């Protein structure tokens, strides 16, 4: 007969596994949607050639839990281009269906990174078709087109700078400098097919291009509204908000100081280490939760890494 201490340990382990599985399902359903298992099977189990392998830096970065705060960083940084933000505010419906938009973006990234070349090209063609219909004027009356290569370049570099920066700060497996350059180069595959031009090949070129866009950047009313929505009014149940706050704090901490200043997001120097620590803790919690799912329940193959 098992001793009382042994029974208590077994019960604690059972409760821990149940909590881990519950968190994993909640994360999966938010990020990938209820059809996540079907999406995972299509991405991972379809035979065919793929652009990348599990040893490639783009694979390592895009499968890691650090993508969660990196995604928040990316949205905030991208919003500083008035044309990009006007397109999102006017055509994406991000407030009316924020989780649907996140799920579509997550599935797209997983498909072009991990899926077959055929499926990746189909996904890119679908997004290009949407971009062709998205056009209008920004808050200053300047015309924009979502298919504009210059605008697509900004979205591309802001996104991948954010993902790489999050990975280097919050992952258990940061890339070497050479791997980081390779990551930047590998992101060009889908970026160029999407219509962006003159994309960077190295981290140095990536950072130089970010800097080169700064004269065009400003926090439009729509950008400040998006920051308010992301950071102070996230559409989450009360129980999920503390965990999201950790990831959001990490995402804000990664932003360049000039971007935080432009968006009006205060982060005093003494508080920055705390925000960074919150991000690391949040990423660890996400990684733990996703590890509680069965392999065929994950959208990303490596969510336990």
From TrEMBL:
What residues form the membrane-spanning segments?
A: none
| A matching Pfam family | MPAB_Lcp_cat
InterPro entries (UniProt xref): MPAB/Lcp_cat_dom
GO MF terms listed in the record are:
oxidoreductase activity
Q: Which residues form the ER-bound oxygenase mpaB/mpaB'/Rubber oxygenase catalytic domain?
A: 61-280
Q: What is this protein called?
A: ER-bound oxygenase mpaB/mpaB'/Rubber oxygenase catalytic domain-containing protein
- Specify the species: Mobilicoccus pelagius NBRC 104925
What's the source species' lineage? Answer: Bacteria, Bacillati, Actinomycetota, Actinomycetes, Micrococcales
């Amino acid at each position: 007969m098992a001793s009382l201490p042994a029974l208590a340990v077994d019960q604690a382990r059972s409760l821990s596994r149940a909590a881990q599985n519950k968190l994993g399902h909640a994360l999966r359903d938010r990020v990938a949607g209820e059809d996540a298992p079907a999406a995972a099977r299509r991405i991972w189990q379809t035979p065919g050639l793929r652009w990348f392998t599990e040893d490639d830096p783009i694979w390592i970065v895009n499968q890691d839990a650090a993508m969660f705060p990196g995604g928040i960083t990316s949205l905030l940084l991208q919003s500083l281009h008035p044309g990009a933000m006007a397109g999102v505010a006017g055509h994406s419906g991000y407030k009316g269906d924020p989780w649907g938009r996140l799920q579509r973006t997550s599935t797209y990234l997983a498909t072009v990174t991990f899926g077959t070349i055929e499926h990746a090209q189909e996904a890119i063609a679908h997004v290009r078709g949407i971009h062709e219909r998205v056009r209008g004027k920004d808050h200053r009356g300047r015309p924009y087109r979502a298919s504009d290569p210059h605008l697509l370049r900004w979205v591309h570099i802001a996104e991948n700078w954010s993902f790489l920066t999050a990975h280097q700060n919050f992952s258990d497996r940061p890339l070497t400098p050479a791997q980081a350059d390779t990551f930047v180069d590998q992101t060009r595959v889908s970026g160029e097919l999407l219509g962006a031009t003159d994309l960077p090949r190295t981290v140095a070129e990536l950072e130089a291009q970010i800097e080169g866009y700064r004269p065009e950047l400003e926090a439009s009313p729509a950008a400040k509204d998006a920051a308010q929505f992301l950071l102070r009014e996230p559409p989450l149940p009360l129980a999920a908000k503390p965990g999201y706050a950790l990831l959001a704090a990490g995402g804000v901490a990664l932003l360049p100081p000039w971007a935080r200043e432009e968006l009006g997001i205060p982060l005093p120097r003494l508080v920055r280490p705390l925000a960074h620590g919150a991000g690391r803790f949040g990423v660890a919690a996400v990684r733990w939760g996703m590890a509680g799912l069965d392999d065929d329940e994950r959208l990303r193959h490596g969510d336990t890494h």
